[in-house]
Each structure stands twice: as C-alpha cells, then as structure tokens.
Amino acid sequence: MAAAAGAATALAALTRAELALLAPLLLVPLALSLRALPWGRRAALLGASLAAMAAVVAPWAIYNTTRFDRPVILSSGLGLALAGANCDATFNGRFLGYWSFPCQNELQSLTGDASDQDGAYRRHALDYIRRHEGRIPAVVAARLGRVWGLYRPGQLLRVERFVETRELVPAEAGLGLLYALVAMSAVAAVGLRRRGGPPAWPCLAMAAAVSVTVALTYGTTRFRAPADVGLVVLASAGASMLLERGRMRRRGGQELLSLGPAAVSQREPVGAMSPAVALPE
Questions:
Q1: Helix and strand tally (H, E) in the chain?
Q2: Which of 85, 115, 245, 264 has its CA 20 to 30 A from that of 222?
Q3: Of all residues in the chain, what percent carry a pLDDT higher than 70?
Q4: Comparing C-alpha atoms, which of 21, 19, 45 is closest to residue 31?
Q5: Contact 220, 95 (CB under 8 A)
Q6: Which helix or strand (DSSP H or E) is residue 207 part of?
Q7: What does each C-alpha distance from 111 to 67, 69, 115, 218 come to in angstroms?
Q8: For residues 73 and 64, what is the distance between their CA atoms, to the nearest angstrom?
Q9: What is the pLDDT of residues 205-262, one digit of tens each?
C-alpha cells in the first residue's frame, strides 16, 4: 500500500507538476500517523512510498535531461507563471493576487530552449519579489482569497470569462457549490476526529497543495481543481453525518412520544432529562 500511494502521487505529479507537493503534504503525514507502528517501520513505509514515486517519475525526468540545456524534472512552466504573477499589476490595484499577460511578456527576445527561457523568467520574477518584499503578505493573502472564493470572487469569475472563456452562470454555480463543500467538509473533519475515525488529512492534503501552489504563483479557479476532488469526498462524509444525526433525533423523539402522556408529564425539568428518555447524541 505504501508503494501504491507513492506511485499514485507520482502519476498526479506527472499530470500537474505542482502535485509533487503531495509527497511532503500527504505521504509524510500518512507515515507519521501510524502510531501503532515503531518509528523504524514508519520510516521504512515512507521510504517505500518515496522510492515508488521516484521510480515512476524517473523515466520522464531522465528523458528531460537529454532534450533540454538545463535540468528539468517535471515541467518548464514555473518561470513563466512567476513572471506573470509578480509585477506592479498583480502586487497592487484591481488585479492584486492575480496574473497579468503584459507582465508575462516584459522579457523580450529570449534565447535558448524552454529550460533557458524558464530560468530567465524565474530570475526576473524573483528579482521583482526581492525588490517588493513588503507587499508579499498582502499579495499572498489575495492569492489565497481568490482561489477559495473569499477575495473579489465576482471579479475573478468575470475576468476568467474573458481570459479563459469560462461561462459565467456555471462558474457562479460552482462558486456556490464550493462554499457548500467547504462547510460540509468542516463538519466531516470535526466529526471524524470526535469519533476516532480515519483522519481527514488525505482529503485535505489536496487543498493544502493547492494553497501552497497559489501562494507561490497566483490565484485562479482552475488551480483549485485537485482540491475539489478531496472536498467532494469529505463533504459527502459530512452530509452523511448530518443525515445520521437527524435520523437519530427523530428516532429519539418517537421513542419519547411512545411513552405516553403520563410518562411525558412526569419528566424531569428541561436540562435534567432522565436516562430512560434521553435523546441519543
């Protein structure tokens, strides 16, 4: 199972390079959470996960070393994303925390292959970040707010309609669904912890990976797609818990009524219900 988890993480990373973050955010916590096992066994399982992940990624990474001037493990797109996300237009004003196509195109006449250009974009972005370090907290907060629908959500949907040709009405419905999924996921996380059930972290790890990615790049709806999968699973558990609790309350009320008027009239005052008629939690 540990090797399978590592292989699955590698496949996710080959699909979206930023999902390599699941190695520290998912595989490591999973291994450490096995408290019934000694530390040596936990370390061995973590090693198996990471070895399987490396084995699956290796053919692609080795191939990349033969076709680029500079080492490329998964993708050469990070520099371009950073260049468009770190400039005056995205550090201030209406598009705080978003991305700017003109900023992405500030560097002209780049030479070399994709790996060389990625390096040039990355250096340009990092130089801008160093010169505007005081704005980083506000920019990161805006990026996270955008991806989770907390900062100018309406503006983001309208911009994405133009930039990414996303229909507005379905996008608005999706934003409403996000709020519902987050609420139900919170119910599940608390309920699982109280019941001593399986941890919610495997589902939340996707959300954590998305948050780290967005904090480093920019906030946009499509970056949230991997987290939506985990939220759907966790929210389903939360909805099930609420339905179960509702059934138990109704069953408890029916049992109370079945005692008859005389028994009900002899109940203790509210707040001191006797064990015989106590509603189940």
A1: 14, 0
A2: 115
A3: 90
A4: 45
A5: no
A6: helix 201-216
A7: 16, 12, 10, 26
A8: 7
A9: 999 999 999 999 999 999 999 999 999 999 999 999 999 888 888 877 666 566 655 5
Q: Rounded to whole angstroms, how far apart are CA atoms 259 and 250?
A: 15
Q: Are 149 and 228 in contact (CB under 8 A)?
A: no
| pLDDT tens column, 101-132 | 888 888 777 888 899 999 999 999 999 999 99
- Could you tell me which residues come within 8 angstroms of residue 58 by beta carbon, excluding any fewer than 6 positions away? none
Phi-psi region of 196 (alpha: psi -120 to 50; beta: other; left: phi over 0): left
In contact, 234 and 187? CB cutoff 8 Å = no
Residue with tokens 């669904």: 177
CA separation for the pair 199, 66 (Å, rounded): 42
Domain locations in the chain as residue ranges: 1-71, 76-131, 149-254
pTM of the model: 0.84
